[in-house]
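Could you help me review a protein record that somebody else here produced? Do not assume that whoever made the record got everything right. The record follows directly below this note.
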Amino acid sequence: MSIWFGALLLVAAAAATYLFCIRPMRRGECGMAGPSTQASAKQRELLELRQEVARLRAELTGDATVDQPRGSRPGEHAD
């Protein structure tokens, strides 16, 4: 009986490792997947914030030549 219990425990550990570690890592959703996925998201957010600051400054000065971030229009607020 203890051999079967050990084998079952081994299979459960392997399945849990696959479900919670290997599968998310292959999809790039794991925190240990590397800094490239997190860094690109932060760079994209930083770019959007810089565009928003430029747009707000342009509204204050009355300049309409500033590029708008994708999906936004003057006067709209993202909630």
